[in-house]
Amino acid sequence: MNNTKSNEKATDAIYDLGYYNSNGIINHTKLKSHLMVLFMWSYTFLLFGCYGVIYYDVPALNSVEAWQDIGMDFYMFHYTFFTTYFTTNEIIPIDSMYLMALWVCLVPPLVIYALLYKRVIANSKFQAALSSVGLSQYYFHKRAGQNIYLKFKKGTKNQYQSFLNQLENLSQILNVENLRVKRYGENGVVLQYSHGFPTIDDLKGYKVSNFLKQNHLFLGIGLPNVGEVFDKKELLHNKFLARYMRLEDIPQGVANLGSAGGGKSNTMNQYLYSLFYNFEWVHYLYLVDFKGGIEAEPIKDLEARFKSGKIDILDDNRIGLYCVLKRLYVINKARMQYLKAHKMKKMSAHYIVLIFDELAEILDYAPSNKEERSLQEKIAFYLESLLRTCRSQGFKIFYSTQSYLSTSSGLSSGMKNNTKLKITHQLGSNLQVGTIKPIEELAELGIFPTKYDVGKNVVINEANNDIYEVRSLYVPDDFIEDIVLKPSDAHILFEEELKPFYIQAIDELKKSAKEEDAYYSIYELANDLGVEEHFQAPITSCIIESQPKESVAPTPTNHLSDLASKMRSKKALINEDKTEEIDSFISSL
Asked: Exposure of 335 by Cβ count < 10 A (0-12 exposed, 13-18 middle, 19+ buried)?
């Protein structure tokens, strides 16, 4: 049906005239009698017009008097015809033109009869479906494209919430997929449906490499949202749509959520594929893997192959992670000053990407002593500070975790509140879903993360309220072998521009510190940022396993402390009774 007022009234009349009731049961007696009257009326009207055209001069039919004369003749002809037949059983001869008109004029009334009858049958079946899920107070109003508009029967109880509870059952009964519902008009609703969501088999053979775009993150493949405007040339199989997000539009916090086996790691590899493809926009990339370093190993090989100097891997090194977060904290402060000095609102390049393979392994950790507890608190502090303040400075912090629940994720409310992009795979319960988005809001859109299969996920961007359901493409374990990192010296030049701001940020940190950091001295921090000549020699040393630093001679005031530190580092030699190595070590002291 067309979306016009006249059609809306006609559609409403089908229900209002009582051709079927709220349970979808048709009143056949009333329906057929009304349709028969309509048929006879329309047939007589058409035949009357044909009679005038055949037997009268067409130009003379412009006057009312002429049509009155025709009407009288038409009536007398048929009166004579039928009375003669019923009294004498004789048929008055009819010329061929009028006989042809009799048959031709039957066609439109028959078509009208059939279409109305078919419409009533369809509407009654729809009403029966509504009734079967307890929604009989709504009735079919109109259909426009993939939207079905329902009206509310006045005087009955509004049960809009029932739509949310019964959406899956209604979707099954109506045999439509991706059914969504939202309010419409004063008391109506509109149901929106679309094609079937792409399955793993539908996307078999598609490669991530075929969907990479400059300065964009490839999110996956899904369906266009109902009412969404897009270029139809971009559709795959005439119905699927590849989803992207501009790198500069990625918020500072990105959560990759879902139960084990739901496809989180594969999705993160898909994102890495896009990031490596756009590596000229990435200033530095950190990958933190505290699950044994399995996921990080291929990235290590990639950096070893290209020696970009822009990739750092941290695996099971809590002190190393603390050093990196503290360094990023200072870099964030320096970039703030850089933006202010250059009258810029945000970074549109030189992104710093920080990826946590499983954040709960870091935050949901029970320290065994006071020192570990202090270190854990500092890690959480710097991470939350970055998430809270780094939006404009080009930071993109991705983290994977199985749950958003505080009891199992270790995430603080501040971390969650500053995570504006959530990629949600299959979740185990509605309780977990509710920590991401109200269940009712997702249900209205036909989104049920507890029902997802492997690879299906929903992208919720709270920065602009975009919500897309997508399926990640399969990324093979050896995808790193296909990656080519494009060399660029832009990040080196940018580092030189930032150095004055590094000095300023480190000075501020030094003034605010009550005592020297035992894990990461001001000097080492300055050394890592290339401004060590402005600061005092180190007091202690922080060594990150993935990138060991050159040793720095200790100051006389800290000689004994440094000697003890070196002795502890060689404890394994003593335990294993390696005499020659021990003698050599003592000689070096």
From this structure: buried
